[in-house]
Amino acid sequence: MIGLSDLVKALAGEEAPEGLVPPVKFSRAVVDSRLAEEGALFIALKGENQDGHDFVGDAFERGAVAAIVEKDVSVNCAKLDVREKPLRWPRHHLELPVCIITEGSLSALQEAAAYWRRQHEVRVIGVTG
Predict the structure, then answer these.
(1) How far, in Å, CA of 24 to CA of 120, rounded?
(2) CA neighbor of 77 nearest in space, from 85, 89, 91, 67
(3) What is the pTM of this model?
(4) Contact assessment for residue 96 and residue 89, using Cβ atoms and an 8 Å cutoff
């Protein structure tokens, strides 16, 4: 599974300064806060009827250590905004949980998946119908 430092590198386009990002590996990635568990990554997606940003706090309460969001959320988390380049890194190390603010949560999830695939030799199969 991908780690927080890998995710930051995938979304920021560069390595974080030494010691800035806690050395944590995600237990799983979820888009439903009810499925969040200890060590999970929560991706806040907007749907037709629900906005995942409304459930970031719930995901953290259930044990998620990080969230990918596309807007500022009113929960207690260290915020890392990767939208502007060059990135302005925080001066102090990030405490868990971490909210990574991106241009779009879905595109950030796709970027993270592409980054992971580039790091591993995996066969990709497309199913069409």
Answers:
(1) 19
(2) 67
(3) 0.91
(4) no
Cα radius of gyration rounded to whole Å, the chain: 14
Give 26-70 pLDDT, tens digit per residue.
999 999 999 999 999 999 999 999 999 999 999 999 999 999 999
Give the DSSP letter of residue 13: S
Strands (E), the chain: 29-30, 41-43, 66-69, 78-81, 98-101
Q: Which amino acid is at 35?
A: L
SS3 for 110-124, per residue? HHHHHHHHHHCCCCC
Q: What is the dihedral of CA 54, 56, 61, 67, to 10 degrees?
A: 170
SS3 15: coil
Q: Is the Cβ–Cβ distance between 112 and 7 less than 8 Å?
A: yes
